[in-house]
Design goal:
The structure is a homodimer of 170-residue chains.
Chain A: H1 10-33, E1 41-46, E2 49-55, H2 58-61, H3 68-80, E3 89-94, H4 98-107, E4 111-116, H5 118-123, H6 128-136, E5 146-148, H7 156-161
Parallel strand pairs in A: 3-4
Antiparallel strand pairs in A: 1-2, 1-3
């Protein structure tokens, strides 16, 4: 059972979702038609404030990590001066790919709301589904081979980290 | 059966792996002790050239996506002026987390070589394993709720994209 803050009804929440998703869809259309990259946009919202927007810029920025959600998360963190998005909602025009899902878990917003699904993305040629499948495989069995090469000093960075007096956990 | 280019023996490859992993481990130690972030570093190599290095900067840059592999991929793409790392090898001090694995699939290097494993990372307090588990769950069943809110215009960005004459696939 979902709970609502004072003065916020389910209708209010639905209207809010519709408003922010429509804005993401508009941004996705505008940015992709303008040549920024793929047809995806996202925004980070806290209460009534839109903290940041983001859209896909992979091909225009030559950055394969510049997906809409990553861009919105990075911008919201710059706005807030923190690396955590506690209490925020991430809206996105489409279900996040595994990279963006991972970014979401590291940023820890309180919720994610998306409109289109990974299957809609796949039908348009965006192969998120492949990456979801590959993640579940063992490292050596993937299309891009992930080779574990044991190294005698592999544990040194962790051993140094756990005794670092001023380490900041994230 | 792995094949080797002319004049490259298995011993050569092992020596190359050892060299680059040791450099990643050194960078992970130096950067985390210096307060950049967690104890992780990576580099992108093509042939004999180190195209880019990266290290974790989550807490110093206030960027939850600034993992070592993401930083190295972004830097290598800036160096090359492209969003694809065809023919490159990504070396990393530790097995990539799901976000970095996703970034790797979008950047498409030819191989990934890592020293420590996700279990070593978990023992030092880095909860990659949780994210691997969460990815496999249905959106609504995750610790961070992912809510699919259908929108009547959700398909518009994709419909516009597939007929865009100058779209650049990635």
């Amino acid at each position: 059972m979902q709970t609502y803050p004072r003065s916020m009804s389910r209708d209010d929440e639905s209207a809010r979702h519709e408003l922010h998703l429509a804005a993401c869809i508009d941004d996705a259309l505008t940015s992709s038609r303008g040549g920024a990259g793929g047809p995806f946009a996202a925004r980070v919202v806290r209460g009534d404030a839109v903290l940041a927007v983001g859209w896909n810029q992979v091909t225009s920025a030559n950055d394969p990590t510049a997906h809409a959600e990553v861009q919105a998360i990075r911008a919201a963190c710059r706005t807030l001066g923190t690396f955590q998005l506690t209490g925020c909602t991430l809206y996105t025009s489409c279900e996040p790919c595994p990279m963006c899902l991972g970014a979401i878990y590291w940023a820890r917003p309180s919720a994610v709301v998306f409109a289109a699904t990974r299957h809609d993305a796949a039908a348009a040629g965006f192969d998120d589904a492949l990456v979801y499948e590959e993640i579940a495989r063992s490292p050596g069995a993937r299309r891009i081979p992930f080779e574990h090469v044991p190294h005698p000093r592999a544990a040194e960075p962790f051993a140094a980290w756990v005794v670092l007096p001023d380490r900041i956990r994230y």
